[in-house]
Amino acid sequence: MKISDEHHTPFLLKPAIAVLLLVLGAATAVNLSLYLRQVRSITGDGSSAPLYDRHYALVGDPRSPFLSSVYEAAHAYGLTHGSYVELTGAGLEASYSSVTLMDIARESKVDGIIVDADDSEEMRDAVNAAASSGIPVVCIGTDSYGADRRSYVGISYYALGQEYGKKIAALKKDTVQMVMIMMSPGKRTSSQNMVYSGIIDYIREAGLSSRFSFESYQVGDGSSFSTAEAVTDILGSYSLPSILVCLDETITSAVCQGIVDANRVSEVTVFGFNLNDMIRNAIRKGVISESVTVPAEAVAENAVECLDTAVSGGFVTEYVSIGFLPVTKDNLDQYENDGSPAEQDREAEAQ
Asked: pTM above 0.85?
């Protein structure tokens, strides 16, 4: 009996697929091998003596402007304190998840790791694996709850919620206003739930619960494209919320662009998170009211100090609080010139 070509195709493809997978696997192995060799040359695991007393890895998404700022500050600070801080994976052709980069840093036998963490089980396992190998880990950005990290260096997310709550309360009207809290999906849920709680508690304590209704919404799947699509759907709806609170940089950027594209700038008040060129321009042009940012230099220096203390066997504070900075049109120029809003602005808000 003659077998048709349709039935031959899968058998012909299998060897080709197998070869392709082998090539990809070999390329990845070579990539990582070269990277580990480069790391060992820095720390003196080869024939030459170490150039620095300590070698730290900074792990996170290298495309993040915030992480890039933290890296630059940590690298500069480390050089003056006997530590070399490298951005793990920066020299690799392919991009890897933060969990995989954690494994690379651990296999590199670095003295310590600073990680822009998340609340996933995979991240907890990666942090615990590093700790079990004798490598202290400091989390920044988001804590890895329940993990064996030495310290978390970052903002209080509940306090951030209180800050947003204060701004929302100042917009009260006689009518009920809809507030949408736009969250990133999945891995940072615990931290963002704390922001949400801070907002709700502030509004309730201010006696304004009857003036606002709240809805939380997880935006997209974490990618810029899906986030932009979700934001477009929201901004294109007839019943647009009166107030949008964006809890990460990707969402804030998508809203900055989407609200202009939808021609709805004057219809909604937007509070964002973090800064980049797009967000700065949106603040300057009045597209969004303000964005809260975290001083990268303070995060970087405190994280390196925590690792230095851990490596030397000293006591490490489990939580190092970093103050956040609300950036508005009024203090944007001051922020860009000095790296922080004018002190008198912060004192005026406290009064």
From this structure: no
